[in-house]
Amino acid sequence: MSNETYKAHAEANFLQSEEWGSVAEKVGHKAIEIEFDGGDKALAIVKNARRGRYLEIPGGPLINWQDQKRVEKDFQKIRETAKENKCTFVRFRPQLLNTAENQAIMKKIGAVHAPFHLHAQNTVILDLTKSEDTLLAEMRRQTRYEVRRAEKLGIKAISGNSKELFEEFHAVQKETAARQNFIPPSMDELEAYREIFGDNVNIYVAKTTKNITADGKKVIDGEPEGDFIPKDTVICYGLFISLYDEVEYFEAASTLVGHTVPGAYAMLWQAMKDYQKKGFKRFNLWGIAPPNQPNHRYARVTTFKTGFGGEQVEFIPAQDLVINKILYQKTKIIENVRKKIRHLS
Do 10 and 16 form a contact (C-beta atoms < 8 A)? Predict the structure, then answer.
C-alpha cells in the first residue's frame, strides 16, 4: 500500500500493506494487488485450503465506500479476479464499523456473512496520543493495580527481533497452543514476519528480576527457602507489528508462571509506552469476544484486554462473495463445524 493510499484510508493497518503480501508469498500463497479507478487498491491473497481455493482480502478493500457506483464497479473487478484464479469465493473483512448502514452496503454488493471470522473483527483500540497519566487513569482499577504490582515485584519487559528470540517465542507458543487449543503460526511464518517487516516487528518478553514467593505476592529478601519463582524467569511473550500509525498486539505466548505473576500487564504497559514514544497513534489489542458471548474462547482474554481502557470496536463481520455455489456449500459445512469445535460462537 502506497503512502497516498494510506493517506486516503487512515483506518488501514498492515493487513493491506505490501509487506503483508510479501509475507503471504513467502509462505506459499499468491498475492495480488488489485487497482481500482481513483487510485484505490486492494491486497488480495489466493489461499489453497482443503475446503477449496478462495480469495482473501484482509482488512480491506480500501475503497470509497460512500460512492455506491464505484463500490459496485470495484467489486465486479474483485469477482473477476477471483474467477481468473479459479476461486470458489472471496472472503473480506473491511475496516468498516458494524452499523446498519454498512450492513446495507454489504447486501447491495451481494455479500453474505462468512461462517468464520477474519482478523480481529472485535477488538480494543487505545489512543496513544494521550499522556501516560491519562492512559493509566483510563484503565480499569484492577488493571492499574496489576500494572503497579508488576513494578513492585520487579517484573521487567524487554523487546527485540533476533532470530533466536523468534525461535524461543515459537517454542513457548507451541506449548501455549497445546494448553489453550489454538493453532499457532509456523516457524516459517514467524521468520517471514521477521524478514519482511524488519524493525517493524518485535517480540516483548516479560521476566522476573528478583526472587518472588511461589504465590507471586511478594519479593523474597535474602536467600530463598522452599518453593519460589527465581529471578530471570520468563513469564510471557508478545509479538507486535507496527506500520503506518497503528501497532498490533498480534501474537502471544505464556509460561505456567503467567497464572501467578502479572507479567502480561507489565509487558503491555511497557509496549504502550515504547510505541507512544515512537510516535504511533493507535494500539490495537487484536481480538476479543463478540458482545454477549460469555462462552466464547476469547472471553477470558477479553476481560484482560478491555481492562486497559480504550475503545471497543466492532467491525463488519467477515463477508463472502460466492463464486461457485455448489463448492461454497462444502466450505460452509466445514467451517461451521470448526467454529463449534473451537468455541468461536
Answer: no
Question: What domains appear along the chain, each with residue ranges and CATH number?
Answer: 3-119+316-341 (3.40.630.30), 122-312 (3.40.630.30)
For the beta carbon of residue 270, count every other beta carbon within 10 angstroms. 20
Residue 74's SS3 state is: helix
- In angstroms, the CA 96 to CA 70 distance is 16
Of 301, 334, 302, 335, nearest to 318 (Cα)? 335
pLDDT digits (tens, 9 = 90+) for 46-104: 999 877 899 999 999 999 999 999 999 999 999 999 999 999 999 999 999 999 999 99
In this structure, which amino acid lies at residue 173?
Q
What is the Cα–Cα distance from 1 to 188, expressed in whole angstroms?
A: 24
Calpha distance 111→133 (Å, rounded): 44
Residue 58: which of 28, 8, 14 has the closest Cα? 14
Q: Collapsing DSSP states into helix, strand and coil, what is residue 188?
A: helix
Q: Please tell me the distance from the alpha carbon of residue 241 to that of residue 89, in angstroms, as a whole number.
A: 28
Asked if 166 and 174 touch (Cβ cutoff 8 Å), the reply is: no
Nearest of 14, 72, 25 to residue 198 by alpha carbon? 14
Q: Which helix (H) or strand (E) holds 104?
A: helix 100-108
Mean pLDDT computed over 132-138: 97
32 and 16 Cβ atoms separated by less than 8 Å: no
Q: Tell me, what DSSP letter sits at residue 115?
A: S
What 3-state DSSP class applies to 59?
A: coil
